Amino acid sequence: MLDSRDINLLRRDVAANCRKLIELAALAGYKVLVTNTVRDDEYQAYLYAQGRTRPGSIITNSKVPTFHSVKAGLAFDICQNIKGKEYNDEKFWQVVGSIGKKIGFTWGGDWKGIVDKPHFQWDEHGKYTSSMILAGKYPPPMPLYKGDDDDMTKDEGLAIIKEYEA
Predict the structure, then answer these.
(1) Four-residue CA torsion sign, 39, 64, 58, 14
(2) CA dist 24 to 14, 21, 43, 67, 123, Å?
(3) Span 33-86, pLDDT tens digits
(4) Which of 14, 40, 45, 88 could covalently link to 10 via disulfide, CB atoms 3.0 to 4.6 Å apart?
(5) DSSP 8-state symbol, 118
(6) What are the CA-CA distances from residue 21 to residues 27, 47, 124, 147 (Å)?
(7) Where are the alpha helices (DSSP H) in the chain?
(8) For residue 57, what are the CA distances in angstroms to 53, 66, 84, 121?
């Protein structure tokens, strides 16, 4: 089974923008850890069984990898790199989710069905679906985020946090 955290296994454009997300999150005061990049069909089937044929909560609706596929390399999952606060700091998700969307990723935290805050994918702003990826139809290269004067600073990250708390 393949379940990797290696950013280098992502498609080159997605990997570059993943690294940019990590960099901008650090500038906003947050440490990001990539927890998953690509997985094979066998590992995806293992995840799909969770909450169905083996114990645990349901964590995926797909029997086969799509955006996380070793062939696609279009998605990654993250957490906060602080022991005990990996997944339960809502401020982290709001700031890092905003950064990811600014770079151009679709963020699983915005999904209406199963909300997946750790998940970021390149689908050309929703133009590519899981079915298309399974059929081998991949989005064009993701524009490399070069940044501009609007890059988020730590103060801007804190402003998002204050707005969220209000």
Answers:
(1) positive
(2) 15, 5, 31, 23, 21
(3) 999 999 998 998 998 899 999 999 888 878 888 999 999 999 999 999 999 999
(4) 14
(5) T
(6) 10, 26, 17, 11
(7) 12-27, 41-49, 90-103, 130-134, 154-165
(8) 11, 20, 20, 22
Q: Which of 36, 26, 154 is nearest to 82 (CA)?
A: 26
Q: How far apart are CA 48 and CA 153, in angstroms?
A: 38
- Distance separating alpha carbons of residues 128 and 150, to the nearest angstrom: 27
Grade residue 150 by pLDDT with cuts at 50, 70 and 90.
low
Alpha carbon distance 45, 64 (integer Å): 6
| d(C-alpha 80, C-alpha 101), whole Å | 17
Strands (E), 10-117: 32-36, 75-80, 106-107
| Cross-sheet strand order for the sheet of 119-121 | 32-36, 75-80, 119-121, 106-107
